[in-house]
Amino acid sequence: MKALFAILVIIAGFGEINAQWGRNAKKYIIPSNSINYCDAEMKKSWTWESLSTGSFDTWQGWNFAGGWSCQSSSKRGLDGRTFGKAISSYCGHDVSSAPSFDCGSKSNVSSFSISTFYVRVEFDSRLELYYEMQDGSVCRQSYECSSSSYNTITNTQCSGAKRVSFVYPQQGKRKDRCKIEIPSVSFHCE
């Protein structure tokens, strides 16, 4: 009986440590509860129609790093939605070399808040988005994605980012990288 009581005390102690860690985690403003300035293109959503096919590293004053390219998209979502063009790249495990985009010095904004975007993955996998915030902190969200269709990704907690990176975290014995395709990005705008 004493051994059982000791085990319960230890388990209760771990629960309190986890709860305290969660309470001390940095809190971010959710996009729908913040004022988000957007330029005209952001208000319409990005659909890449004005982007030439092929590799690129800048578009409308924004910087795109990590091997992005633009191509025609012939895929259809489960909801019947089709897209004209999409951008794509390969995500790996390392955030420092991950495909990313940021509002560079030539863009009309200093920060942004993604609302939703569509993404297709090469195979069923989990993606992590690393939002680099104005204060240098990183707000991270994780999503389970299916390869059968476009996945709708919703930003629920990371408002006011200056960069977003797309990471394919290690997942057992799967591949070292995963191709992603993004046909549109929508922003929270005031």
TrEMBL record:
Keyword Signal: yes
Signal peptide: 1-19
Keywords: Signal
Protein name: Uncharacterized protein
Species the sequence originates in: Dactylonectria macrodidyma
